[in-house]
Amino acid sequence: MSQELIIEAGHAERQYWKDLWRYRELFLILTWRDVAVQYKQTVVGILWAVLRPLLTMAAFTIVFSKIAKLPTEGEAPYALMVFAAMLPWQLFATSLTATANSLVANSNLVSKVYFPRIIVPTATLGVAIVDFAISFVLLCGMMCWYQYLPPVQVLMVLPLTLLAGLVALGPGLILCALNVTYRDFRIIVPFITQFGLYISPVGFSSSIVPEKWRLLYECNPMVGVIDGFRWAILGTTDFPGRALLISSVCAIVFLLAGIKVFRRTERTFADVI
Fold it and tell me: What is the pTM assigned to this prediction?
């Protein structure tokens, strides 16, 4: 005897995904709203999107290059190496934070109107993508300043950007579902992103990690993404095939787990939010 997984009253598993497509315009509306709130009629949002990666790059360059005397990758200026890593990390951190807090921030909408709730956390990725685009323009300006030409594989930035977003979306869905019931998780998320920043190769090159620890280090899914960005933008390293494979597997596993956890708890959101 077959059983149906009920998401909302009268909505079975198959109908849920049909509803997701039917409410695609709501996804676009929420995405545009979040972007507009961040940037419309204010210079603060744009200024912060510019200053945050630049200040982080400057701090890491001074600490790791000037003080710790760590090597750069190939002939690339250290500042470029750091900024190339800041692109995917900023996308990941912004996406994870926004996704985790999305349902609580939209509690009025969630508690009053039916729609597939997974639209809310996925729509928040729009702001992260806009921040990424602004930072990428800054990177292009820096490369012109340093007269550094990108390699032909720079086009691989597009699929690598998608991978960075997927790495963030899976854990973000899990944290989003937990945050509805356990509000303490909103305190944990900044700690996760801050801790992850220091254990990921943002301010330094992965080449300094001893070979015997390299496989374990690459189990951090952002290692493959960051090394992939540096390979695509700077062309100073070999293609990080193993690290990217691990990142891709982690992204898929976390995404499937995130969807499962989110769907399992979704029916209770309107009652407890």
Answer: 0.89
